[in-house]
Design goal:
The chain has 256 residues and is an all-alpha fold. It has 3 domains: 1-67, Multidrug-efflux Transporter Regulator, Chain: A, Domain 2 (Orthogonal Bundle), CATH 1.10.1660.10; 70-105; 110-239, no CATH class. Helices cover 66% and strands 0% of the residues. The chain has helices at residues 4-11, 15-23, 42-56, 61-69, 72-102, 113-124, 129-145, 150-160, 164-177, 186-206, 214-226, 230-239. α6 (113-124) runs antiparallel to α7 (129-145).
Length: 256
């Protein structure tokens, strides 16, 4: 008769595994001898080898007991069901591997190529990397909300980069975001002037005067969470009659 160590070694498992199988009722505990030690017979070895084989095949421990007691037909059905589950898990893991592999691509994992090109263009123009990262996160929000409109948005943004006003805007914002500027820094007011003039020009040309959706609210929140000075920019935009720098929404009356 075998001790628990001999049983585990013979079946190719650990003593800890045997004890666990006892605990969950998968392998019956044998009677103890006069010295108080467990002693295992040949049937215990056979049962443990079956348990090990099923477990190694990916069968959940919670199902092994039923499979050991099943007839041939029921056993075959259980094996087929588990095989389908394993196939699904393999597919999920393969998809996860593909996503992990894509992580080396950085921003392209979550952004379309046109946005990546636009962000690279900002870098070429000397825009602060912190500001570029902020734009990147903003495009992630926009892309999730309106993926079919990204190309049109980017086309407009690229056209703006040919306008000296926007180049000045990015230069000013880059200087501010990379500095310890306070809320009363005059560069913030200059940036707000450019943004307000841009919104007014757009509304005059397009006829659109309102835009208030979840995406715009999240963009505002992103800026406020990223840099506390964004609150001052928001206040400055409201002083100029606009609800925000992200929404084409005029205030009914500029606050006094």
């Amino acid at each position: 008769m075998l001790t628990i160590s001999q049983l585990a070694a013979y079946a190719g498992v650990t003593v800890r595994a045997v004890r666990h199988y006892h605990q969950i009722g998968l392998l019956p505990e044998p009677a103890r001898d006069a010295s108080g030690y467990r002693r295992y017979g040949a049937m215990a070895v056979v049962a443990l080898i079956k348990i090990r084989t099923l477990a190694n095949a990916g069968v959940p421990l919670s199902e092994i007991g039923q499979m050991l007691e099943a007839d041939a037909s029921t056993f075959a059905e259980a094996v087929q069901r588990i095989d389908h589950q394993l196939r699904d898990e393999i597919e999920r893991l393969e998809n996860s591997r593909k996503q992990v592999a894509q992580l080396v691509a950085g921003d392209s994992l979550v952004l379309p190529p046109e946005v990546i090109d636009y962000l690279d263009r900002l870098r070429e123009l000397g825009v602060s990397e912190r500001l570029v990262r902020g734009e990147r996160d903003g495009w992630i929000l926009v892309g999730a909300h309106s993926p079919d409109r990204i190309r049109g948005y980017i086309s407009g943004k690229l056209a703006q980069l040919d306008d000296p006003r926007y180049l000045r805007l990015y230069r000013v914002l880059s200087e501010v975001i990379d500095s310890d500027a306070e809320d009363d820094d005059p560069r913030l007011a200059e940036a707000a002037d450019i943004m307000a003039a841009s919104l007014a020009e757009y509304v005059a040309n397009s006829g659109e005067a309102t835009q208030d959706d979840l995406s715009s609210q999240l963009l505002d929140a992103l800026a406020l969470e990223t840099d506390p000075r964004a609150q001052r920019m928001l206040d400055l935009m409201r002083e100029r009659g606009w609800a925000s720098w992200t929404r084409l929404e005029r205030l009914a009356k500029p606050p006094d």
